[in-house]
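Suppose you are handed a protein chain with no further information: no name, no annotation, nothing but its sequence. What can you learn? This example shows the usual starting point.
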Amino acid sequence: MHTTRTPALTSRLPKVGTTIFTVMSALASEVGAVNLGQGFPDFECDPRLLDEVDRAMRAGLNQYPPMAGVPALREAVAAKVETLYGRRYDPGTEVTITAGATQAILTAVLCCVNPGDEVIVLEPCYDSYIPNLDLAGAKVVRVPLTPRTFRPDLDAIAAAITPRTRALLLNTPHNPSATVWTRQEMQRLAELLAPTDVLLISDEVYEHMVYDGQPHVSAASIPALAERAFVISSFGKTYHVTGWKIAYVAAPASLMAEFRKVHQFNVFTVNTPMQHALAAYMAAAEPYLGLPAFYQRKRDLFLDGLRQTRLRPLHTAGTYFQCVEYDQVSDLPEAEFCQWLTREIGVAAIPLSAFYEDGFDQGIARLCFAKKDETLGRALERLAKL
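A reasonable first move is to predict its three-dimensional structure. Written in structure tokens, the prediction is:
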């Protein structure tokens, strides 16, 4: 008689365990800490957007939409991108609606990266990039951003490019460091890539969170980059609905054709009523044009409070994250400091080392200020103990 057993698997992602976000959120919940770790708002979206969802559902828009996305939403995206960045993407062949930006990044990787191809990743980086490249069988080439300032080292990027380089993953505004690439840096990147066939996967999910009157320089706004780029943005981040998991990708038609081949078989299509609601809601530009001022006020409120502590804030040029140096408070490594801060002070943060493959430690923690004013006030009261 045979005993039953589950066959053993050889993991496709042997290095992946429980993410730091899950660990810190669970710890925050366990000890009743204010969770400034994970990057999501604790306030509601515009009720008008919910009204549009209700209207779409009740109008019977509840079956599969076209594979590439609802045409009205793709047209709204193309119009927005053209107005802001000066490049016209054809909504029929060059814009695709995705199930969040994380899916968009994986799909872009899988459609263009073959086993053994080299892909340049700038560290620290969002935690999905490396596993996506591992799944594609790529050779990951890590180029660090300049420690503490997190400016791109364009000479180091140039030195990392070889005949085997297939793509470069770019993120601006940058999570976790909250830096924003300048037009000069983007132009220099365009010059570096011009003689090559290197593709660009440009993660721009925080495009509408750039402060102090500075512009977001999209890859779409620089023709030499746009011609080789998958440009990715997120409705979830822009409209405070991260749980909807809806984003978009814009790319030249030849790249988008390959993207859609993968998209068709790893997602097929995306939530129909939400797409119709977003298309209707995008008729007004104010919700995204007003976002920099909305979040800059929160940033400044948070910064004022942090100045009453011994944490030293780094400059936040974009995103809704604030990095802090804590060397005047503790000499613990980052991961241990963030656990101590959560348990003893009651505020959850994320160690910057979690965004480096080798756990590079600079004594920096990342906090999220996409929270109600009262949430930030509660966190600041606790941090004042420092």
